[in-house]
Amino acid sequence: MFGVRKEGLSDEQRLIVSTIVELSRKFGEDYWQRLDSEKKYPSEFVAEMGRLGMAGLTIPKEFGGAGYGVKEASLVLEEINSGGGNAQPFHGQYYLSFMVSKFASQHSKEKYLPGLASGKLKMQTFALTEPEAGSESTKIKTSAEKRGDGYVIKGHKVFISRLEHTDLVVLAARTTPYRSAQKKTDGISLFLVELKGVKGFEMHRIETMFNSQTYEVFIDGLEIPRENLIGEEGRGFGYILDVLNPERILLASECIGDARWFVQKSVEYAKSRVVFDKAIGSNQGVQFPIADVYAKLLAAEKVRWAAAEMYDAGADERSVGELANTSKYLASECSWQAANVAMDVYGGAGMAVSNHVERKFRETRLYRVAPVSQNLVLAYIAHSVLGLPRSY
Q: What is the pTM (predicted TM-score) of this model?
C-alpha cells in the first residue's frame, strides 16, 4: 500500500524499485538514526548504491552508465525516503549528471563520467548559493578570471552540501561582473572542480537542524583548467535553468517518499495504540487527517509522474516547467502535512528519538524552503504559467 506503486512500470523499473526495497531493509531506520545522532555521512549506503549500479543510473550508456531518465531516478529517491532513509546524496548526483552529460566538454565527459558511473567518483554538490545571493542567484559575486590556459576563482559560498564526501563539485562563478553584463543572467559560468588536493578552497561545517553535511566555503586562488568549463563561458545560467525541471521532479519524489513513510507510520501506530479500550485509529479525529493527507499524496504523485514522463519524452521546457514546479509544490506541502499528522497521531511518543518520527520531521521541513522556496514556485506559476505581472 505505502511503497512505490508498481502499476504501469516496466520490468526494468520494477527491478530498480525492488533493488532499493532490499537495500532499505539492509540499511534500516536505525542506521539512519545513528547517522543523524552522530552527524555522519551515509558512506556505507552510498558505497552499496555504487556497487549496485545506482550511482550511474542517469549517466549515458556510452560512458558506462545505465542511461535512464528522470522517471527511474525518481523511483530510486522515492523508495529510499519511503523506507525511512535520506536520498539527498543521489538527488545531487542525478541532476548534476544530466548537466554534465549534456553541456560539459568531451574531455570532461571522458575523464569523469565513467568513474561516476562505476561509483568510484562522486559528484553530489552544486556550489551556487552565496550569503547575499540565495534565491537571487544572478547576484553571485564569486569571480572567475581568465589566466593562461584556465581560470582563477575567488569568492564565498554558503549552504553547500556534502563537500567532504564528494570528488567533484559544480561551481558557479561570474566571468562577467553583474554590473557589466548586458542582461543580469549573462556572465555566469559553471566549472567542474576536482576537490582532491585542491588549493584555495577552504570549507567550514555549518550545523543545521538535521544531518545535512552543510558547509560555508571561502575560495581564493582556486585554479581551474579551461577544459573544466561546462559549456560556453558566460552562458551558465541557461544550463542551470535546463536542470531546474529535473531537480524539481526529483525533489518532489523525495517528498512523496517522505509522505508515504509518515502515512505508513501513522496508520501502524493508530492501529496499535489503545486508549480507553479501543485503538485510536477508530476515531474519526485520527482517521480523517491521515486520509486527507493520503488523498493529497496520490495527487502529488500523479503530477510528479506526468512531469517526469514529459521531461524524458523531450517536451518543451515551459510545458515541463509547469508540471515540474507544481509537483514540487504539492509534494513538499504534502510531506510537511504528513509529518505534522504523524506527530499528532503519535502524541508525545513522536518526540522520542527511537520512533524516528522527529528525525524525518526535521528532514522533510527543508523542502519547503530549499533549494527553492514554496513562494518562488508560486511566483513562477503566477508569472510564467498564468501570465500575471512579475512581482520581482
A: 0.96
